[in-house]
Write a structure and sequence with these properties.
Elements (H helix, E strand, L loop, with lengths): L5 H12 L12 E6 L2 E7 L13 H18 L7 E9 L8 E12 L2 E10 L5 E10 L5
Antiparallel strand pairs: 1-2, 2-4, 3-6, 4-5, 5-6
């Protein structure tokens, strides 16, 4: 169980995305909930997040899933991020430019150095499920 609260977790979130790395595509996303091994992030889909059809790009969706689930890994008994070993995403319906979406992650299993989480992305205004994912990681940072 995490010993940090939402404010500290938001600081970690900002540190992950406010640097010159790929995760910086999430600079407009916010961590809006953090409690133990559960957390949620939220963002309004903008042109920079969209594909040529004006829908949220699948690569952007996958990055949001990855970073949000990393936060739930840090809130679990693992208490640190993990290197992805598997990311399985079902893209169920589009999110369009202007849609506010929320990614809800829950760490499901910590088994030694392996950890897994489920992430569901919903459109905020109607609750429609946009994508659902299972993310497995491996803790390479432990001694």
């Amino acid at each position: 169980m995490s010993k940090i609260g939402l404010e500290a977790a938001q600081g970690i979130w900002r540190a992950l995305i406010d640097r010159p790395a790929f995760d910086s595509v999430l600079t407009k996303a916010c961590l809006v909930a953090f409690s133990g091994s559960k957390c949620s992030s939220q963002i309004t889909v903008e042109e920079e997040h969209a594909d040529s059809n004006g829908c949220m790009h699948n690569g952007f969706t996958s990055t949001l899933i990855d970073v949000t689930s990393q936060m739930s890994f840090m809130g679990s008994e693992l208490q640190m991020p993990a290197v992805s070993t598997d990311l399985s995403v079902s893209f169920l319906r589009p999110a369009k430019v202007g849609d506010v979406i929320r990614a809800d992650s829950e760490c499901l299993v910590v088994n030694g150095r392996t950890v897994s989480a489920r992430v569901d992305i919903h459109r905020v205004d109607d609750g429609a499920l946009i994508a659902s994912a299972l993310h497995t990681g491996f803790n390479v940072f432990a001694p």
